[in-house]
Design a protein that fits this description.
Blueprint lengths: L6 E8 L10 H21 L4 E8 L2 E2 L2 H7 L7 E2 L1 H12 L9 E4 L9
Length: 114
Amino acid sequence: MLKLATGTIIFTGATSSVRGRGGAVAFSSAKFAVRGLAQSLAVELWPKGIHVAHVIIDGVIDTPNVRKTYKPSADEPLLKPEAIADAYWNLIQQECSAWTLEIDLRPHKEAFFE
């Protein structure tokens, strides 16, 4: 029988939550703190059936405002909002025996994979 969480808390982070960026000390330390909070709450709340997850968004999200302001090229690696939403929904639907604490979302063409 599939057993789902009684609730889910999802924190949105950035790559800076894992490794800092030069010139972004305040942002990186804040995102690192959010990641630590998510980990602490996960330990505290999992016995109560509450799933806590941290999602690292590592890339630019493809929105009309991004397209208008930055005018990315056709081959620019962008994250689709619908795909991000699907990843969040999958976290909510996870069976309790195999919860994910953290996922890293990035576009497939990003230089990270080269």
